[in-house]
Amino acid sequence: MIRHEKVLRTFDSLISDVITDELEHIGINMLKNDGFVKASKDDQGTLTVTTKNGHNISGVDCLLFAIGRDPNVELDLDKTGVTLEKGHIKVDAFQNTSAPGVYALGDVCGRALLTPVAIAAGRRLAHRLFDGKTDLKLDYNNIPSVVFSHPPSGSVGLTEREARDKFGDAAVRVYRSSFAPLYYALSERKVKTHMKLVCAGDEQRVVGLHMVGQAVDEMLQGFAVAVKMGATKAQFDDCVAIHPTSAEELVTMR
Predict the structure, then answer these.
(1) Nearest to 151 by CA among 14, 251, 2
(2) C-alpha 13: how far from its chain's center?
(3) What's the pTM value of the predicted model, to 2 decimals?
(4) In the chain, what are the domains?
């Protein structure tokens, strides 16, 4: 049961479309644009779930709510001068809160809710406070993110929609590829890998890279470095491909 038409709706449309279709293809019955109303338990301990759209699902043995998480900020922060913003602690680019000498980082700040992000922000804050590196801060742009779905998916940079909103349709060019990787060469069912490069400007700087498929979770890290460094499509093309691999598709797209 999902509240919208697709899963992973904050990711690029490539990822949300492919993962939604794949979940349905393997037999998961998805109730879209729906929501939970109530659950009742019978004498055998099984549940009947009622949804907002009037569905009654019986024989349910396990009900899991994947509704996200809220920061634990019920700490009388109003007495400390620490400002909240939409339930999260408000910080500046250097992790400073509104109260002098009080810092916050990680999920409680509401940005890039990932463990490595919190670690990176914490390290930079420690160096700034205790190592004399007064200008050190975490750059929250182009942080790579992976969903360990089936198949896995990964993303770094802007989605296609974000790029078009930022640079304008005329300045954005998108490259796509879809193929069955060699991993499935001998299997009856071949799960395709999907890739997308989002490029912007006259030099076609790669501002977004999105993938779904076997091993893309391992593949993304190196390409995230290239996107972080501002690589262009021409520089991707100039890199000699490693054959036969799935990764070569990203440097051979035309």
Answers:
(1) 14
(2) 11
(3) 0.92
(4) 13-60 (2.40.50), 77-131 (no CATH), 144-250 (3.30.390.30)
pLDDT digits (tens, 9 = 90+) for 73-108: 888 988 999 999 999 999 999 999 999 999 999 999
pLDDT in tens, 201-253: 999 999 999 999 999 999 999 999 999 999 999 999 999 999 999 999 999 99
- HEC letters along the chain: CCCCCCCCCCCCHHHHHHHHHHHHHCCCCCCCCCCEEEEEECCCCCEEEEECCCCEEEEECCCCCCCCCCCCCCCCHHHCCCCEECCEECCCCCCECCCCCCECCHHHHCCCCCHHHHHHHHHHHHHHHHCCCCCCCCCCCCCCEEECCCCCEEEEECCHHHHHHHHCHHHEEEEEEEECCHHHCCCCCCCCEEEEEEEECCCCEEEEEEEECCCHHHHHHHHHHHHHCCCEHHHHHHCCCCCCCCHHHHHCCC
Q: What are phi and psi of 71, to 5 degrees?
A: -70, 145
C-alpha span between 38 and 16 (Å, rounded) = 27
- CA-nearest of 159, 161, 158 to 142 is 158
Active site residues: 243
